[in-house]
Specification:
Elements lengths: L7 H20 L4 E3 H7 L7 H14 L6 E3 H13 L2 H12 L6 E3 H15 L6 H12 L6 E3 H9 L2 H10 L3 H8 L7
Antiparallel strand pairs: 1-2, 3-4
Helix pairs in contact: 3-6, 5-8, 6-7
The structure holds calcium ion (3 copies).
Amino acid sequence: MGANESAPAEDILTQDAHHWYTKFMKECPSGQLSLHEFKALLGLTGLSPQANHYVDQVFNTFDLNKDGFIDFLEFIAAINLVIRGKIDQKLKWYFKLYDADGNGTIDKRELLSIFTAIQAINGNQELTPEEFTNMVFQKIDVNNDGELSLEEFISGVESDENLLEMISKSFDLSNVLKIIQSGRRHSV
Ligand SMILES: [Ca+2]
Ligand SMILES: [Ca+2]
Ligand SMILES: [Ca+2]
């Protein structure tokens, strides 16, 4: 008790957690967000199959205990990680997201499909998904086997500021957060 170390970041986090909880419960009174509600909440309906697949994958990555719902703790963990996590943690998380078949490496097809989907959601980007994918592999597939290991991915992206920025931008959740923060309701 009375530990005197100041941890402003954590104080802010506690306040935020309460704020997020209120928003979350308002949107999702059951406290368990289904995939359908998740999509409705974010206005992600009527997507192309590829974009839809990406959203499914984001949902599954958030659903840490794999029970098919995002509960408040999982929701906070995801937000927390995406907003405030250390670069390492974030990259691990992105890696998991991009490794669609979960075999522990990212191949070109996986990266291409995720960037095609992201582009479908985010709209215009400077590079086509193909150009982007090829660039990423050129830069960070160190042993040139056409697959990105977790090591290659993390050390490669970490050591390349442009790439890091592009990867971070491609998974910018600020729109999502804005929607939730504004307390938008979806029809139940
Ligand atoms: Ca869950
Ligand atoms: Ca894979
Ligand atoms: Ca490799």
